[in-house]
Recover the amino acids of this structure.
């Protein structure tokens, strides 16, 4: 999961924001989204600890991988939003 | 019969009046201009909807004092209790506010509407308001031709006020001149008969003009010109309050049962208030004299005293009714019973929600949720699963494997009655709303939801295709093919469970990003399927005919899974700014496939069975 698409979407968002067609994202909004992902991560970890079936454990590990990548993207987005408050 | 006779009768009376007196023409034109102003004011405020108005109304649901306060403020600003009633019925029908809050707003609107009497008696009659009206109209027309919706709205509001002022001016002039020709006080009646007759006239005038405001202005200007007696003016004002309920009753015809309850509350409130005012009219007169003397109103200023009376009796009505508000709600709920829920009928898309962007959006999303619930139940049954067991199990695969007995039901018939009917209502609603002047962002959301409805419908159709073989091969263990179909059922079931978890989570805790993990899983499984089937054919564990059937069915299954996930990601509500964040962080289809292929390459040959 690279950041190219995310970066493109962020630029599109800034364009829409300029035209008054998007709600302004504040750092607190991104932090909230990251917190929700971390909550899911904690849930998945709990499920993994309880899971016995190898297939289920494997599925949960993959999901954890995805959620970790999403959290990293979120942190990248937070840095971008913090860096461009006046944009 | 009444309806057929009403219009010719009004036209006949007007024609006779015009023939008899040119001053009557001026009074009638004044009323017409005033009503036209009110229509413009309503249109202007509607252009502002989608913003402050709805946000304030949504917040006015917290408590009775809040909703009461909202009713007072909104009606004072908009100078139309009718508009406030219509908006409230619309919000109630969309499920945005509770009946209790709605009744509170209606009570408040009755107090707010009394400011109109003050405006006319205190300002309209004392100042030459036509001097303000003309420049207001000239500026308004410039604003009305602007592109911006809000400038146009401001133009309509300003024009509305201008016409209100102009209407008052003509009524005032008309009555002043009229009194030189006719003395209407000849028709004055005293005692109970006078009260009864003039109350009925006040009610009838309000029903005809559809505005208690216009009636009050007419009464005050006539009173100021000494064309009616003060006593009869009081009865007319009470009658106007009764007549105004007709607007709410008409508005409730297209509303659901909640809207009808609110209209009944309005009728009860106004009838009780009017009854109390009629019984205690002498005491109220004493109270008016007392208040007037204390606030410096001259004893002979009957116009302002009428405004005091109007305020006192409406406030008194609220004070009397407030302690019984919960009993009133219970009575309304008993009298207008909630219709037995028919899942095949749309719950939220009544015409009462059509007028306001927020109600349109919320009603559409809730109806989509209703459609999803119906579709979800049908999908679960179609896969021969039990809803409760599925949502409670810790081992979905084992639950699916154990659910072997085909559930006998007519899926086509249920699809027609529970899914297709709702889908048709959603399409019709989107088209209907599209023909109105809605903000582009609202229409984008409406069209997105229409697309989501289409996805949900497609999912059910896919399951219909899949059901025959899934039932055939899973009712008994026939080896590899049974395991393959159970695998597909399990994957669909997992997605239903994940969406269910997301729906049940509190809006502030959940994130549609959670479903991205499922999207990757679906693509990864779809990628694995072809390779695994090839392997099974080569090792002669599966014959080509069955393999082809399974591949066709797995296409239906994966397309159902993709549609389910895309629909859920679109219709599950989140705060606007968070939705923007999730849109940026969410994975595009192309990225999902890239990740899924990457995962499949990490494990070159995963067996499906």
């Amino acid at each position: 999961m690279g950041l190219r698409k995310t970066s493109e979407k962020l630029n599109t968002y800034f364009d829409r924001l300029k035209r008054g067609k998007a709600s302004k994202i504040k750092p607190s909004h991104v932090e909230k989204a990251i917190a929700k992902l971390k909550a899911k991560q904690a849930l998945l970890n709990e499920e993994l600890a309880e899971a016995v079936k190898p297939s289920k454990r494997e599925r949960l590990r993959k999901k954890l991988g995805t959620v970790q990548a999403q959290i990293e993207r979120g942190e990248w987005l937070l840095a971008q939003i913090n860096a461009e408050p006046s944009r | 019969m009444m309806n057929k006779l009403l219009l010719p009768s009004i036209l006949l009376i007007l024609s006779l009046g015009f023939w008899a007196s040119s001053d009557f023409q001026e009074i009638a034109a004044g009323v017409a201009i005033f009503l036209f102003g009110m229509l413009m004011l309503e249109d202007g405020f509607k252009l502002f909807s989608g913003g402050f108005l709805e946000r304030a109304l949504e917040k006015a649901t917290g408590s009775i004092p809040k909703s009461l306060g909202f009713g007072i403020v909104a009606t004072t600003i908009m100078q139309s209790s009718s508009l406030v009633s219509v908006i409230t019925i619309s919000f109630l029908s969309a499920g945005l506010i509770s009946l209790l809050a709605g009744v509170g707003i209606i009570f408040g609107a009755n107090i707010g509407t009394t400011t109109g009497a003050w405006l006319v008696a205190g300002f309209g009659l004392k100042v030459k308001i036509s001097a303000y009206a003309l420049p207001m109209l000239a500026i308004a027309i410039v604003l009305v031709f602007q592109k911006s919706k809000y400038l146009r709205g401001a133009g309509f509001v300003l024009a509305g006020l201008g016409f209100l002022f102009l209407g008052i001016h003509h009524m005032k002039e008309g009555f002043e001149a009229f009194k030189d020709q006719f003395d209407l006080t000849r028709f004055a009646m005293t005692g109970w008969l006078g009260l009864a007759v003039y109350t009925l006239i006040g009610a009838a005038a309000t029903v005809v003009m559809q505005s208690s405001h216009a009636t009050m202005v007419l009464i005050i200007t006539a009173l100021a010109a000494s064309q009616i007696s003060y006593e009869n003016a009081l009865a007319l004002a009470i009658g106007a309050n009764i007549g105004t309920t007709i607007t709410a009753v008409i508005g409730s015809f297209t509303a659901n049962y909640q809207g009808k309850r609110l209209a009944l509350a309005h009728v009860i409130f106004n009838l009780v208030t009017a009854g109390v005012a009629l019984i205690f009219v002498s005491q109220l007169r004493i109270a008016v004299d007392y208040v007037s003397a204390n606030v410096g109103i001259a004893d002979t200023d009957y116009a302002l005293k009428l405004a005091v009376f109007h305020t006192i009796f409406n406030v008194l009505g609220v004070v009397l009714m407030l302690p019984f508000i919960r009993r009133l709600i219970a009575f309304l709920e008993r009298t207008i019973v909630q219709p037995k829920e028919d899942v095949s009928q749309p719950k939220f898309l009544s015409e009462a929600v059509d007028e306001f962007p927020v109600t349109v959006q919320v009603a559409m999303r809730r109806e989509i949720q209703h459609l999803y619930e119906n579709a979800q139940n049908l999908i679960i049954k179609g896969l021969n699963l039990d809803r409760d067991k599925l949502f409670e199990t810790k081992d979905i695969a084992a639950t699916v494997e154990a659910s072997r007995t085909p559930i006998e039901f007519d899926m086509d018939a249920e699809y027609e009655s529970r899914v297709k009917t709702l889908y048709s209502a959603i399409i019709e609603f989107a088209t209907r709303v599209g023909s109105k002047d809605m903000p582009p962002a609202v229409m984008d959301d409406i069209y997105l939801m229409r697309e989501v409805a289409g996805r949900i419908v497609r999912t059910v159709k896919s399951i219909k295709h899949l059901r025959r073989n899934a039932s055939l091969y899973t009712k008994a263990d026939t080896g590899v093919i049974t395991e393959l179909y159970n695998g597909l059922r399990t994957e669909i079931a997992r997605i239903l469970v994940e969406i269910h978890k997301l729906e049940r989570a509190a809006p502030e805790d959940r994130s549609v990003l959670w479903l991205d993990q499922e999207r990757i899983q679906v693509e990864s499984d779809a990628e694995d399927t072809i390779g695994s089937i090839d392997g099974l054919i080569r090792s002669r564990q599966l014959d080509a005919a069955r393999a082809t059937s399974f591949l066709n069915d797995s296409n239906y299954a994966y397309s159902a899974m993709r549609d389910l996930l895309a629909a859920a990601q679109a219709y599950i509500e989140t705060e606007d700014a968070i939705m923007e964040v999730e849109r940026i962080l969410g994975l595009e289809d192309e990225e999902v496939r890239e990740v899924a292929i990457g995962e499949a390459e990490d494990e070159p040959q995963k067996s499906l069975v």
Q: What stands out?
A: The longest helix of chain B spans residues 440-474.
